[in-house]
Design brief:
binds D-malate; globular; 14% strand; 410 residues; 2 domains; 7-stranded mixed β-sheet
Length: 410
C-alpha cells in the first residue's frame, strides 16, 4: 500500500478559514433566516476596476484571432508585466529591482508555501505569533516542525510573540534561525513595521546568514508616508530577503489570481557542503518545472493596474476599504473595545471583551449578532483573547456590523 506523507497528520484539524466556514454553514442551516455578515476571511467584495476589465476584454479578443493568439507564455510572466511591476512598484520608489528578478504567479499563498521546495529540511524557521497560518502549515507539511503541543505550537518552530504588551513588534530570536517570515502590513494584527524595525531584521539576517521571507500582500493599504512598502527600501535587503506581493487585495484579484515574488540575483544560500548557491536560479528552476505561468488574459488585466486609470481606480478601492476599517475601529472603540491595526491595513484586531476566549467570542458574535470574524487563537497561541475583523465588505454591511457588534458588547 502506498505510504502517505505522515507530516500531514501533524497538522491541526483543519485550515482556519474552512473551519470557520464549517461552523458558519452549520449555523446557517439551523437558522436559515439569519442575515449573516461575514467579516472573517479577508476576501474582497467590490468589482474589478474598469481599466482592468477593459484590458482583459481586449486580451480575450486577441486570443480569438489566429495572428494574436497565444499558447504557453513565459513561466516567469510576460515581459510587459514584469517590467511594469519593476518600474511602478520598485524603481519609482528608488528601489533597484529589475524585471528579471520578478516571478509572476497565481498567488502569494501558493508562493509562500512553494518557496520551501528550494530550502533544506534542516533550516530553523521563525514565525511571529499570531501569524498567517499558511507559513506554519506548509512547514509542517514539509517536515520541519515536529509535533504540536496542546496550545498548537510546534516544537521545531521559533515563535516570536506579537501582542499589545510589545506593541506588536516581534523581538529578535534568542537563538539563531535560518528562515524568518515577516508580513507587513501584518495579517492578522493590521500593524506595520517602521524602517528601523525592518533594518534590525535585515541586520540580523546578514549577521546570521538568514533569509527573510517578506510578505507584503497588503502594502497598498499603507497610508503613513514613513512606513516602507517594500523590504528592499532597507539598504542591504536584496542580499537577505525574498518579497511576496499580490494583486488580490488591492486590485480585487482574490478570484482572478495574480501575484508575484521578487528574488534578487545577489541573494545566496549555501549547499550542504557549505558552498554558496544562488537562490534566484533555484527558484527559477522550481517555477519553470512546476508552473506554466499565469494566463495572458489575466496578465494583460494586471498590467492595466499600472495605467493612470488603473492606478486611480485601485486607489479608490483602497480608500473605500480603509474607510470601512475606520468605521469598524471607531465603532468598536466607542463601546470600550481595545482596537489595533486598521489604519495601514484592511484588518482590525481587537481584544475580546471581558475574559472571553477567541472562539467563545466567535460563537457569541455568530449566535447573538449573526456576525462572523476570525478568532485570534486561530492564528497562534499568542492570538488567544484577540479577534480579527476584515474591512472587506459593502459599506451597508460594515455599518450594520458595527451596530450589531455594539449591541452585543454594550
Ligand atoms: C485572510 O483572511 O487572512 C486572507 O484572506 C487569507 C489569504 O489571503 O489567503
Amino acid at each position: 500500500m502506498a505510504l502517505i506523507n505522515d507530516h500531514y497528520l501533524k497538522l491541526k484539524a483543519g485550515y482556519l478559514f474552512p473551519e470557520i466556514g464549517r461552523r458558519v454553514n452549520s449555523f446557517c442551516e439551523e437558522n436559515p433566516s439569519a442575515a449573516v455578515i461575514k467579516l472573517g476571511i479577508g476576501d474582497v467584495t467590490e468589482p474589478l476596476p474598469a481599466a482592468i476589465r477593459e484590458a482583459m476584454h481586449a486580451a480575450i479578443d486577441e486570443m480569438g484571432n489566429r495572428e494574436t493568439f497565444r499558447g504557453y507564455g513565459p513561466e516567469q510572466g510576460y515581459a510587459f508585466l514584469r517590467e511594469a511591476i519593476a518600474k511602478h512598484d520598485f524603481q519609482s520608489r528608488g528601489v533597484d529591482i529589475s524585471a528579471d528578478e520578478i516571478f509572476v504567479s497565481d498567488g502569494s499563498k501558493c508562493d509562500t508555501g512553494n518557496i520551501l521546495d528550494i530550502f533544506g529540511a534542516d533550516n530553523k524557521v521563525a514565525v511571529t505569533d499570531p501569524v498567517y497560518p499558511v507559513y506554519v502549515d506548509t512547514n509542517v507539511m514539509t517536515g520541519r516542525t515536529g509535533a504540536a503541543d496542546e496550545s498548537g505550537r510546534y516544537a521545531g518552530l521559533t515563535y516570536l510573540p506579537v501582542t499589545a504588551e510589545n506593541d506588536f513588534v516581534p523581538a529578535l530570536p534568542e537563538s539563531p534561525v535560518d528562515l524568518i517570515y515577516l508580513c507587513y502590513p501584518n495579517n492578522p494584527t493590521g500593524t506595520v513595521a517602521t524602517k528601523e524595525t525592518l533594518k534590525q531584521w535585515v541586520d540580523y539576517a546578514k549577521a546570521n546568514g538568514s533569509i527573510i521571507l517578506f510578505d507584503a500582500a497588503y502594502e497598498a493599504f499603507i497610508t503613513d508616508p514613513e512606513i516602507p512598502h517594500s523590504i528592499y527600501e532597507i539598504e542591504g535587503a536584496k542580499e537577505v530577503a525574498i518579497e511576496f506581493r499580490s494583486f488580490s487585495k488591492n486590485a480585487g484579484f482574490t478570484g482572478t489570481r495574480c501575484a508575484f515574488t521578487v528574488v534578487p540575483k545577489q541573494l545566496m544560500g549555501k549547499t550542504a557542503s557549505g558552498e554558496p548557491a544562488e537562490i534566484h536560479s533555484l527558484w527559477n528552476r522550481r517555477h519553470c518545472t512546476k508552473f506554466n505561468g499565469v494566463s495572458y488574459i489575466i496578465q494583460k488585466g494586471t498590467e492595466a493596474a499600472y495605467s493612470e486609470q488603473g492606478k486611480q481606480q485601485i486607489k479608490e478601492l483602497i480608500t473605500f476599504y480603509l474607510e470601512n476599517a475606520r468605521l469598524l475601529r471607531e465603532g468598536l472603540e466607542s463601546v470600550g473595545i481595545s482596537v489595533y491595526g486598521g489604519v495601514n491595513a484592511p484588518y482590525v484586531w481587537l481584544k475580546t471583551p471581558g475574559e472571553s476566549t477567541s472562539w467563545d467570542f466567535f460563537d457569541e458574535l455568530l449566535q447573538k449578532a449573526h456576525l462572523v470574524g476570525t478568532p485570534g487563537s486561530g492564528f497562534g497561541a499568542s492570538g488567544e483573547g484577540y479577534f480579527r475583523l476584515s474591512a472587506f465588505n459593502s459599506r451597508d454591511n460594515i455599518n450594520e456590523a458595527v451596530t450589531r457588534f455594539q449591541k452585543v458588547v454594550s
